[in-house]
């Protein structure tokens, strides 16, 4: 509510009584990331980013905490889910050296391209058929096909998705990725996969990088090495996918202007930053100490961002579309696991 001040001369001047500050929410996101790190240290099988999402959802529903999370902390938590996510994605590029990725060969590259394309398009189609609202089909398709919550956050930056759609999509993809940690190792024997083959399957089908590591390490170092390299191939496709979504939305909204009266950039700035970071890592000029620092910063930023996104989940609202969303998640899981398995059999 504005106060009316009347200075000399009779002119009426509007003065804002209170301006919302982002600091309480940013501090809460940082505390949530720190708590998630503690959970990960105590329970290494629980990936850091998974713990961050779960803690954010819990904070939004605890009787005394939720009033603060949905009130004074909301501006800062929303800011964390947007801005910190972008910075974290840029730093993610420093962990991706194209030389290491291409070492697996062109057959593996083709396999990953097929997995990403089929999973993305198939999940998007199924989500529309199920009648999921808003951008949920787009976000879930992105999360399953690329790298889970990080990819959802990246695409949401260019699609302008509703915060609740983003949060519910992150929650679903995180849940399915967490279940993969327990389910996939049980299938290695029945599917007749060697340790390297199992690693490739995990890298091509599990969403978050931390979940890939937690799943693949059950089959030993050979599986873990293959899983991480295949997963990095999928991460490398994040920038092209986000750029493609941006171009598609720009074409659909042609003629529209941003609030400043300018058209949006064809390629979002954080996507360009991601590509620059990948190029820097590929040159081999970045010192190992700097890479280690960037990995720590990236994990912390993404953890804080995902805590912010998790805190926007409203379980009663999620329950209203929970059945259809769960069905989409199951269908997408079957698609990505099936296509990945077929690809591994053809390329190993």
3D architecture notes:
A hairpin with a 7-residue loop joins strand 1 and strand 2. The longest helix has 26 residues. 48% of the residues are buried. The chain is mainly alpha-helical and 348 residues long. The chain is built from 17 helices and two strands. The protein is 73% helix and 2% strand.
**Biggest beta sheet attributes:** 2 strands, antiparallel
What quaternary form is this? single chain
The percent range for helix content is over 70%
Q: Rg, please?
A: 21 Å
DSSP strand content: under 5%
Residue-averaged pLDDT: 82
Counting DSSP H or I runs of 4 or more residues, the number of helices is 17
Q: What low-confidence regions span 5 or more consecutive residues with pLDDT below 50?
A: 1-19, 257-262
List how many beta strands DSSP finds.
2
The SSE string, one letter per element, is: EEHHHHHHHHHHHHHHHHH
Shape: globular
What structural class do you assign from the helix and strand content?
mainly alpha
Which labels suit this protein?
globular; mainly alpha; 17 helices; 2% strand; two-stranded antiparallel ribbon; disordered N terminus; 348 residues
In short:
The chain contains 17 helices and two strands.
How would you summarize the topology of this molecule?
Blueprint: E1 2-5, E2 13-16, H1 23-42, H2 48-59, H3 65-70, H4 74-92, H5 98-102, H6 106-130, H7 136-145, H8 149-159, H9 163-187, H10 195-205, H11 209-216, H12 221-236, H13 238-252, H14 269-283, H15 288-310, H16 315-320, H17 322-347
Antiparallel strand pairs: 1-2
Helix pairs in contact: 1-2, 1-4, 1-15, 2-9, 2-15, 4-8, 4-14, 4-15, 6-7, 6-17, 7-8, 7-9, 7-17, 8-9, 8-13, 9-11, 9-17, 10-11, 10-12, 10-17, 11-12, 13-14
């Amino acid at each position: 509510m504005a106060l009316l001040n009347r200075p000399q001369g009779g002119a009426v001047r509007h003065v804002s009584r209170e301006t919302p500050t982002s600091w309480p929410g940013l501090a809460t996101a940082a505390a949530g990331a720190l708590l998630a790190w503690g959970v990960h240290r105590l329970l290494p099988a629980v990936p850091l980013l998974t713990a961050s999402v779960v803690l954010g959802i819990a904070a939004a529903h605890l009787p005394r905490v939720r009033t603060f999370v949905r009130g004074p902390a909301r501006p800062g938590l929303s800011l964390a889910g947007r801005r910190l996510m972008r910075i974290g994605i840029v730093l993610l590029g420093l962990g991706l050296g194209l030389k290491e990725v291409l070492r697996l060969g062109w057959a593996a590259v083709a396999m990953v391209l097929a997995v990403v394309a089929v999973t993305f398009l198939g999940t998007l189609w199924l989500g529309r058929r199920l009648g999921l609202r808003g951008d949920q089909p787009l976000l879930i398709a992105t999360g399953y096909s690329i790298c889970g919550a990080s990819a959802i956050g990246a695409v949401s930056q260019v699609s302008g998705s509703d915060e609740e759609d983003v949060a519910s999509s992150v929650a679903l993809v995180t849940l399915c990725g967490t279940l993969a940690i327990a389910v996939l190792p049980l299938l290695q024997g029945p599917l007749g996969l060697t340790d390297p083959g199992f690693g490739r399957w995990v890298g091509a089908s599990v969403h978050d990088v931390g979940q890939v590591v937690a799943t693949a390490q059950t089959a030993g170092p050979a599986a873990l090495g293959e899983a991480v390299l295949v997963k990095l191939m999928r991460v490398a496709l994040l920038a092209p996918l986000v750029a493609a979504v941006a171009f598609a939305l720009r074409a659909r909204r042609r003629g529209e202007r941003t609030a400043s009266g300018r058209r949006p950039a064809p390629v979002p700035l954080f996507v360009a930053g991601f590509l620059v970071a990948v190029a820097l890592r590929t040159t081999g000029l970045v010192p190992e100490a700097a890479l280690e620092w960037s990995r720590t910063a990236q994990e912390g930023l993404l953890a804080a961002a995902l805590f912010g996104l998790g805190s926007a989940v409203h379980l009663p609202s999620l329950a209203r579309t929970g059945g259809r969303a769960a069905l989409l998640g199951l269908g997408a899981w079957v698609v990505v696991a099936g296509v990945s398995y077929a690809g591994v059999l053809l390329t190993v």
